[in-house]
């Protein structure tokens, strides 16, 4: 799966940079949400087929909220730490880290709020987070535990990273990953906006 | 929110009607659609006119801003699962 992912990514970049013209690019990227919907329904079917999952979610209830909190706080502290090693200011750095892997939104928002240079860093850094998450999920699941494998994925744990989580964890973790992804996705725009309002 | 709605549709289908025999095919659909999504992500990325120069200039900063938050997220969530998920 990781190889398929890397091959898809590289061939996408090659097509975007050299092969497709603008009309094709628009055509293709406009289809991506439909592909995502197909994926979501298909993942839903996987979850629905596994009947014990719902029992487990009931058992965990409030604990489901703790994981996104850990991911968000960890990312913010990670952003602060990273600002010590880069030329990015601490609040820009925190805003970029609070993209939580949602590169399209954080790229656009930070371009708007802080300029194209930082917007590009936000885009690339969050894209890298998604790709790195994709690659390390199996290792995190093995080294720490299956729940922790959700953390690197951030906001992408409900969509792009989900197939990896399905493959390397279990249905119970997958359901938590969906909640985690939804809550993180809601948090991303709020965090970016308020970091700039309060700290700049 | 759409994400949840589509997911719920899938869950209902899976719970009520989906034949267990076709489970393998359902998993294949996931692999195919994720590959397409990643390909399209690459297209979006590659279609930025100065992608390569941007990438080389800002690549290291971006990488640090990806890796360090990942490390801290993993550590925080690990401790949460260790102390609260017993």
TrEMBL record, chain A:
TM segments?
32-50, 62-82, 102-124, 131-153, 173-199
**Top-level taxon:** Bacteria
Cellular-component GO terms for this entry: plasma membrane
Question: For this protein, what is any one GO molecular function term?
Answer: L-lysine efflux transmembrane transporter activity
Keywords annotated in UniProt? Membrane, Transmembrane, Transmembrane helix
In Swiss-Prot or TrEMBL terms, this protein is called: Lysine exporter LysO family protein
What is the organism of origin for this protein? Anaerocolumna aminovalerica
Q: What is the lineage of its organism?
A: Bacteria, Bacillati, Bacillota, Clostridia, Lachnospirales
TrEMBL record, chain B:
Task: List where the protein spans the membrane.
Answer: 6-22, 29-51, 63-85
Keyword line = Membrane, Transmembrane, Transmembrane helix
Any one GO molecular-function label of the UniProt entry: L-lysine efflux transmembrane transporter activity
Protein name, please? Lysine exporter LysO
Organism of provenance: Anaerocolumna aminovalerica
């Amino acid at each position: 799966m990781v190889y398929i992912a890397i091959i898809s990514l590289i061939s996408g970049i090659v097509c975007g940079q050299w092969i497709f013209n603008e009309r094709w690019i628009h055509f293709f990227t406009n289809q991506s949400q439909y592909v995502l919907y197909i994926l979501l329904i298909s993942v839903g079917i996987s979850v629905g087929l596994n009947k014990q999952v719902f029992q487990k979610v009931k058992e965990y209830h409030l604990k489901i909220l703790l994981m996104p909190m850990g991911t968000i706080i960890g990312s913010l502290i990670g952003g602060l730490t990273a600002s010590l090693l880069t030329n990015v200011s601490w609040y820009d750095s925190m805003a970029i880290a609070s993209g939580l892997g949602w590169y399209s939104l954080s790229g656009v928002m930070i371009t708007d709020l802080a300029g194209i240079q930082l917007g590009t860093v936000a885009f690339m850094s969050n894209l890298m987070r998604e790709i790195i998450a994709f690659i390390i999920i199996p290792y995190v699941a093995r080294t720490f535990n299956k729940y922790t494998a959700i953390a690197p994925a951030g906001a992408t744990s409900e969509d792009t990273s989900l197939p990896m989580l399905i493959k390397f964890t279990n249905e119970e973790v997958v359901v938590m990953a969906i909640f985690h992804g939804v809550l993180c996705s809601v948090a991303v725009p709020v965090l970016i906006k308020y970091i700039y309002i309060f700290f700049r | 929110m759409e994400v949840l709605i589509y997911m719920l549709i899938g869950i209902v289908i899976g719970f009520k009607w989906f034949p267990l025999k076709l489970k393998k095919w359902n998993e294949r659909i996931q692999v195919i659609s994720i590959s397409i999504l990643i390909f399209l992500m690459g297209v979006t990325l590659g279609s930025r006119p100065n992608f390569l120069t941007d990438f080389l200039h800002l690549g290291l900063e971006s990488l640090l801003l990806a890796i360090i938050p990942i490390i801290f997220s993993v550590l925080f969530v690990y401790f949460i699962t260790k102390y609260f998920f017993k």
